[in-house]
Amino acid sequence: MLIATESEIKQGRTTDVYFLFTEDILRKKGIDTRVVMEFYARAVPEGDWGVVSGIYEVMKLLEGVRVDVRAMEEGTLFLTNRNSPVYEPVLQVEGPYTEFARFENPALGFLCTMSGVATRAAKLRIAAHDRTLLSFGSRRVHPALAPAVEWSAFIGGADGVSNVIGAEMIGEKPVGTMPHSLVLILGDQRKAWKSFDEVVPKDVPRIALIDTLYDEKTEALMAADTLGERLQGVRIDTPSSRKGNLRKIVEEVRWELNIRGRHDVKIFVSGGLGEAEIAGLSDIADGFGVGTYISDAPSVDFSGKVVEIVEADGTRIPRAKRGDISGMKQVYRNWKTLADVVQPETTLGPKGSEPLLTPIMRNGEVVRDFLRPREIRERTKKQLEMLRDHQPSLSWAVPR
Questions:
Q1: Which of 347, 350, 314, 345 is nearest to 328 (CA)?
Q2: Which range of residues forms the domain containing residue 42?
Q3: Do 102 and 216 fall within a single domain?
């Protein structure tokens, strides 16, 4: 299989070869320069904010490597400003360059891919308001990436994930109903719903798939008649060739269930959903299953750049390539207004603000506890709620 093992990743074998050339040159020339490298994004797809994910994976990658690391907490909202040279580092690595050059590649891979998924999930969380949001997208990615996708979807705002090992790794139970194949193999919707009810553990919600052979409204009533009070919900997964006006379909199903006294039956929608579709259904549907839109999220274009040289006597020399801003930085946030200011590390932040970059690794050893996925998710949700009332802003300040 075309899969790099965890050992191969930890050895730096998934890197670009020019990093190995650089390590070889520096070692043979006897140069062991200590540097500060910052990982940041100048912009994010579809907006001016993102949710960082992959921080913990980078720490596992660098564990035992002779470096110090400061980072934002996993799941933190970070800001960008396309009209300014300023950027927010989400992670900083300090150490001898030869110690970690080969790890720039996989570190960026973790951050770019996982932050893209977390950001997409966060945007869907906002669109869905308080409705249930489930991640169904692991079939759309390389199987080796499924746990990372589900982790990022969950911390970004999804209430649950369908992938078995992905759910296991975040300490949650996988969620799901039934595929159309079950109905087609049994040849009868009622038989499929009954079999599900008879076989599947009782703590799994009885949610019937209602669009396999007949009209959604018809199958919804059939499911209610078949399972009676045990029916907790129905799922509409109508293909695009038959979808028509999806909102009207959902409204029809809701009307027919309600007029028969089944207000308790929830309606879940899946299949080709994005932000716009969810925003347009969040007042009438009870939940959403989203696949490709989450798992196929555009990656966040993070870069890793050297911004400071640390000499043997401890002297720090700001140095960066053109187009970048030199010197080690700190991001200060006013949590009441979501106003961020980027300043040199050596200066005090604005009154009432909090530094977002804090130590997470010293000399290759992790020095702060990793939060549990549900703790990260709740923290992220609180930040997303602030976006409803505040327009985030990003500025910079240097001593004059």
A1: 345
A2: 6-115+299-396
A3: no
Distance, in Å, from the CA atom of 82 to the CA atom of 45, rounded to the nearest integer, reads 11
Last residue of a domain, one of 274, 295, 316: 295
Cα separation, 134 vs 132, in Å, equals 7
Would the pLDDT of 244 be above 80?
no
Question: What is residue 90's predicted lDDT score, i.e. its pLDDT?
Answer: 98
Residue 289 and residue 163 in one domain: yes
Give the distance, in angstroms, between the CA of residue 137 and the centroid of all CA atoms in the same chain: 12
DSSP states along 86-125:
---EEEEEEEEHHHHGGGHHHHHHHHHHHHHHHHHHHHHH
Q: Is the pTM of this model over 0.90?
A: yes
**pLDDT (tens digit, 9 = 90+) per residue, 315-372?**
999 999 998 999 999 999 999 999 999 999 989 889 999 999 999 999 999 999 999 9
266-270/287-290 β-pairing? parallel
Residue 122 forms part of a structural domain: no
Confidence (pLDDT) at 387:
93
Question: What tens digit of pLDDT does each residue of 184-197 get?
Answer: 999 999 999 999 99
Q: 274 and 187 in one domain?
A: yes
Residue 165 is classified by DSSP as: H
Residue type, 89: P
Q: How far apart are CA 352 and CA 349, in angstroms?
A: 9
Give residue-wise pLDDT tens across range 55-77.
Answer: 999 999 999 999 999 999 999 99
The answer to whether residues 245 and 340 belong to one domain is no
- 121 domain-assigned: no
Distance in angstroms (rounded) separating the CA atoms of residues 282 and 302: 32
380 and 234 in one domain? no
**Residues 6 or more apart whose Cβ sits within 8 Å of residue 147:** 163, 165, 166, 169
How many structural domains are present in the chain? 2
Q: Do 154 and 258 sit in the same domain of this protein?
A: yes
Say which residue the tokens 């640390």 belong to.
310
CA–CA gap between residue 364 and residue 348 (Å, rounded): 27
- Contact predicate 64/124, CB 8 Å: no
- 105 closest CA partner among 142, 41, 58, 56: 58
d(CA 197, CA 71): 47
Rounded to 10 degrees, the C-alpha dihedral 371/151/59/301 comes to -120
